[in-house]
Amino acid sequence: MAPDGARNACRYCCAFKNIGAKIIFFFISVNKKISGR
């Protein structure tokens, strides 16, 4: 059970990092558009 749990944790962690990166990139792009105006 330990290996499976570690795998699931890694999957959730990787997914969370990807989502966080997308959100940060989205906010940066929005800030650039607002500052550009």
Annotation keywords:
1 helix; 37 residues
Could you please describe the fold and organization of this structure?
The protein is mainly α and 37 residues long. 95% of the residues lie in helices and 0% in strands. It has one helix spanning 2-36.
Overall average pLDDT: 84
The end-to-end span amounts to 54 Å
User: SS-based structural class?
Assistant: mainly alpha
Radius of gyration from CA coordinates: 16 Å
Tell me the major beta sheet. none
Fold blueprint:
Layout: H1 2-36
Summary, kept brief:
Helices cover 95% and strands 0% of the residues. The chain is built from one helix and no strands.
